[in-house]
Design a protein that fits this description.
Length: about 230
Amino acid sequence: MTPAWLLAVAWLMLAVGVVAAVAVLYDLFVRGYRQPMTVMEWVWPITALYSGPAGGWLYVRFGRPASKRWQDEHDDTDPSSRPAWASTAVGVSHCGAGCTLGDIVAAVGVFLLGLEIGGRALWPELIGDYVLALALGLLFQYWAIKPMRDLTVGQGVVAAAKADFLSLTAFEIGLFGWMVLQALVLVPSGHRLEPDSPVYWASMQLGMCLGFLTAYPVNAWLIRHGIKEAM
């Protein structure tokens, strides 16, 4: 049996994430702070979904000011006021959103199909997570990089792979490290967390936040060397 206090904490974490994501969606689509890049209208609420107030703050501080409405209201169209660390953080949130969607789809799919390797669902989940996260993450990067550089489809795919392969892998290293630690060390022997439990998804929120941290230095390096565009 899962302790009542742990269930309560898990539900609270999930509720905070959902509220933060809904608040960002409201700001984007009801208040009208639409983003110049459509893909960022996916990125910001997904980021808030797993990081809660931190993702919401990042959106308010650096996402909302990117909208034409905000710039018209404040007579400010100069993006140079954004510090380097913020551009890196926005870049991480961009690749992290693709990873998050891939992780969710893979986790649910492995659970519904009952897939296991060596008696554990963890291993097919890690494989599925990485494949889908890589595919969706590169798609998100393609949507961003193609219009920025006015590239052909083929050029856009190659540029997206160069820009985000290392970043996506670094994000997954943080997440996977947490998932393995949770499954093999933190959860008592004979038990396992599965996607039908709120504790599982609250744990995934923590893992994705760790993924954000492990992807940050890689993104900083990619941007500094001109391999990835500053968002």
